[in-house]
Structure formats: structure tokens, C-alpha cells
Amino acid sequence: MSQHSADILWQRDGQDFVGNRYSRRHTIRFDGGAEWSGSSSPHVVPLPMSDATAVDPEELFVASLSSCHMLWFLSIAASRGFCVERYADSASGRMGRNAAGKTAMTVVTLRPQVQFSGERLPTREQIEAMHHAAHEECFIANSVRADVRCEPVMEDGAPR
User: Taking the model in full, what pTM does it have?
Assistant: First the structure.
């Protein structure tokens, strides 16, 4: 199996660490070279100790599920002979208490909207089947305990 990595770097830079007055901003470097600013969510650690402009772990979690689903959907659509012109998702996640009473991401909802082009267009049922297949194949969805939902938005704007 493949291995994936990310390097995380945080430095105190003279801040009052023991007094809990330190920035949670840090650098996230991915194995392909991309670099992002990370932070705790302002919903978890108040400003100014968090940086609202940086990516927080909860956002990364939701984004990884959405991205994985999209990549599988595109692969499945291509293999079935459908041309995807555009794929957009407004994914969201909800924090809550899990069965053990711990704070966790309890629900992630994907809302993909896919536009197709060409002479061969899929039916609503075929689109739903491709989303189901993508969900079943998604490595990230298969790795989490949260209820991961997919609510595709069809080209006509109507939810499934």
C-alpha cells in the first residue's frame, strides 16, 4: 500500500505558552510540496489565539472526504462513458458528541453538483448510482466513523 505524509511545524516564538496565550497558527507541508497555514478553529480556541484565515483540522477533514468522493466520481463517470464538464461541492461537517460521549465530527454532508456534456448524458438514477459507487470506494470515507452523507444537487438545482 502507499504511504502519505504531511509535515506540521509550530514554533512558540517567545509567546506565553504556559499562560495559554500562544497562537495555534502553524505550517502544514504536504509531500508534494504544497504548503498551507493551519490553525485551530476559532470555534474551538477563541481569537486571537486561533487564526480564522488558516485551515483548521475540521475543515481539512471535510475537504478530504469531499475531494476523495469527487476523484472517485470522476473516475467512475469516465469509465462509464460520461463526460463531466464541472464538479462542485459545498461540503459541511457537524461536530457533536459520539456514542462514547466524546466530541467528534458526527456528520459530514457532501452536496456535489455535477454538470455533464456530450451526446451521452446520464439519467438521475445513473448519477445517483455513480455517487453511491464513489462513496463505497472512497478511501477516506472507509476510514472514518462519522456518518458521511452524500446529497448530490442535480443540474436543475434540485436536491436529490
Answer: 0.90
